[in-house]
Amino acid sequence: MNGKSILYLPFPLSDSQRAIVSSDSKYIKVVAAAGTGKTETISRKILYSILEEGVDPKEIVAFTFTERAAKEMKARVYAIANSIGDQYLIDRLNSMYIGTIHAYCKRILEDHFSYGDYVLFDDNKEIAYLLKVGWKLGINKYENSYTRSVLQFHKTKNMVYSELIGEDDLKSNSKDFYEKFKEYGQYLKQDKVMTFSTIIHNAIVELRKDPINVQKLDLSYLFVDEFQDINPSQYALIKLLVSSGARLMVVGDERQTIYQWRGSNHKLFTKIDNEFNGVKTMYLNDNRRSTKNIVDNANFFSKTIEGRFEDMIPSRPENYPLIMRSFLNEEDEADWIADTVQDLVSMGRLRYGDIAILLRSVKSKGKAIIDKFRKKEIPYQIGGNIGLFQRDEGQILGMFIAWLVDKEWNFNGSIVKENDLLRRIKDLAVGIFHLNLNKINDKDFYAIKEKVLKGVGKNSYQNITELFQDFLVKMQFKNLDPNDPLDAISMANVGRLNNLLTDFETARRIGGRSASWKNDLIALYYFITTYAQDAYEEAQPDFDNEMNAVLITTVHQAKGLEWPLVFLPEMNKNTFPSSLVGKPQKWCEISTNLFDVKRYEGTDDDERRLFYVAITRPRDLMAISSIEGKESPYLIDMNKSCFGIPDLKSPDFNAERKRESPTLEFSPSEIIWYLRCPYMYRMRKDWGFQPGLKEEIGFGNAMHSVLRNAVALMKEEVIPVETVIKESSDRYFHLPFAGDRKHNTLKKKSEDILDKFVREFPEFLSNAEDVEYRITYRNGKVTLSGRADVVLSKDSGHAVVDYKTSKNVNTKEEAEIQIGAYAIGLMRMGRKPDLGKIAYLEECEVENIDLNEQKIVEIENKIENIIAGIELKKFDPNVSEKCVDCDMRRLCRYGGYDE
Prior knowledge:
Shape: globular
Structural class: alpha/beta
Number of domains: 5
CATH architecture of the largest domain: Alpha-Beta Complex
CATH topology of the largest domain: Lambda Exonuclease, Chain A
Helix content: 40-55%
Distance between the termini: 63 Å
């Protein structure tokens, strides 16, 4: 199959798409308007570069803005490869990278710069961490509350990294902040923590140390999607990555730059023309997504955005008048939206999941619609960072924590405290958990509180998850039926609350800090009330696109998505544009001469770009509404000829409807979860329930790290096998949550185990060809990816090794499946392992698995059967004597725990 066939299969590309895909320019900039098929174009270009230009897939990197976008692009690339029936090509694709820039930087740091034992904190964990260390840093003075000071420091720190402000400039212009900034960096380094801002900075620093570092990445072609939303540090990384001669293709649209408040700079989309020699600018303007009126209206409005942009060209033949309405108040507006949704669904015109309601802010503008949907029993899902605490499950947790620490809770505008908290909790739990009030009384709550107050001892809680599970048992959580869709949503939201608690406790206890129940729970209360209520989204159980519910979300979160019908309510002044636009912000008293402060404050033009994103999300129909006398000035700039009298029976909502199957991605560990117990898998994987934190967590990973780095030390520093374990252990043994005493005890235990093991089996060090080897392979729409502990070279080929701390960790069947998955991946990548080795470290034993053709087929069939069960949502429990060891046993309704 030659590359030119990619221009026509599985369907012909447009002329402009074909020109881009077949271009031989080293640097290509694609200006891709909304709905013009940029994902398809990038996917075809990736395959064209492989088939026609001979680029090795392992030398291809494609950056997407979100993980969701990465899944979509990977699914598209593989779907095209499947359509041409080239299994060899499909297997080679497994070595390419498609994902976020942050995940790629993490991979670089882990694989090349000894960051394998670092923990990555997202923003939620980092805020919890900053709340812990902030007093020591002295960052409590920036605002009139501690949390606001922490948030301001976090924002300023991110800006410094995003803008690449040098330490010398920071020190000379803002010495006080500089000292806190540097000290915070030391805390992160000491606790081995990376954040979303430091991870890119660290990658740049490490790569710049020696030009050979970039060359080691073996990068031939870099693709960057949503280029208009990158910040200066990401731009610097991109330049660095292609500095050794790699080709570059960037795709974006300046009209859709909407993240300037966190550093995005659309001017970089123009800057690339001047800094890369011979950039070829190409255009995608054929809009295949939307009907003509949607496209014409967007073109009309885009003339009000600063810059010169080519019009989109509508490709679809259907056309329906758009809807613009005004109402006396928000109540009437919400009524009309709810009635319209119900009418369309009852007529069979749409499913609930085909409809989105996009708001400037769900928190400030969504209440009337949410209340109306609840009243009329319209299924909905809330996007945006307040979604979790719009649900009763979040209210129950918040009130319970408030009660434990003798604080108050704001419940729908009313202050609730003391025993009223217990009453409200039980009232809500009747509806959520089907609580039988005859089976619970206040003494059940006080028993938990008394156990918390004891604080230490054999019968105390070891972690917040244990406390949470105890509370859920009392709330009769096990009444929830996972086969009931509404109960399943509640279970998923409870799992999301478990995530919140784990985020907090991870940040609180990393570095070996022991639990201090009174202080920790007070800190948790303030974490929830001052931050988490506005930071955690509602859970999305199972597969997102199978949720048959109206999505109520923000315009920012709708970026890159589309629906047959989109409502844009609350299009009022002070909403679009926001009343906060241009408002001066505080930056921890650092000099505003160091960066473009106006870009972070926002402009009317930024608001227009956001509005443009909103009006380009619908495929078939758009309904805009406002309150009389408060209409947004942007409505004047709409193309009135595109609007008309609404006739909801006319639109053919089925036109070009996408019903793509979700992309399924698994690790071998997740496959084993399902094998053990499908119900446990669902609780952990789909709903996010977490095991509790313990000091010894990470012991197995720490031993693996010591072994992995021992191989490198022997090769690079010629350290003899007799001393290499001790040397590697001193450098790399790390337990993130263990105090000094526990850490030293387990470190000594690890050294004794590993020293004995490598003396008994020296070939695991001397014959190690690869360690922590990344393996990915794909069957149809399913991707399995993981890291084999060791690939050994031997006379007849290769052996793949999986380390197990002890024989108690896995059954032999589970270990064989894990070994087999890695072996299949290696074979797909052109290597031929014929032997598997399960190394039991504590027992100092090695068990061989003959990876003959029959065994591989047997393992592959088991994996396929497991995946089929997951796809069919077969989550029946495996009730057995092993339930006693399950982290989820207390919450299992199938007999996994006996009180």
